[in-house]
Amino acid sequence: TSDDSRLRAVAAYGLSPDVMQGDLEPLNRLASALFSVPTSMVSVVAEHQTFFASRVGISVCEVDRRISFCHSTITKDEPFVILDASQNPNFHDNPLVNGPAHVRFYAGAPLIGPSGAAIGSFCLLDTRPREAFTPADVANLKLLATLALDKMELRRLERAEQASNNRFRQMAGTSPAGIICADHEGIIRFWNQGAE
Description:
Blueprint: H1 2-11, H2 21-35, E1 39-45, E2 49-56, E3 62-64, H3 69-73, E4 80-82, H4 95-98, E5 105-112, E6 118-126, H5 135-174, E7 180-182, E8 188-191
Antiparallel strand pairs: 1-2, 1-6, 2-3, 4-5, 5-6, 7-8
């Protein structure tokens, strides 16, 4: 199914709660100040839960996917905005709205990876409703989402390179042929037993 391929794309990033806190927290802090919201996070929508790879202003690190606003965001191509969740027919009875979190305002931009799969969202939360979220606000939220996704992509590419290097070393280690690898300066960085 399409969610299976999306979940495979999510897995390629190797993300877990708070795993990118150091890399993404400055963007969350900037978003919190720029939009005057107490909470900003980078969410990842996994199979059963939505967890936060980075967050400010919220103590929980994951929520049930079925009640998360981010679950709706990943179905969109553009930012998803709810000015007052208590007045929204799709969310007014959500536990995040009528429970202790008391969410009223939500804005989230989908994080769409190079495969076209939505990994999660860059989102803003407030306990106060908003009168408006302007086109300039939407543009700024999309820009922050792009910056967050760039950092996530660097992590994904580093993981892919490491996996590729590990596979190469395993194959070279069992090969009877001599294999020698040098860097761009001609310094030998790897050789197998066949080269010895």
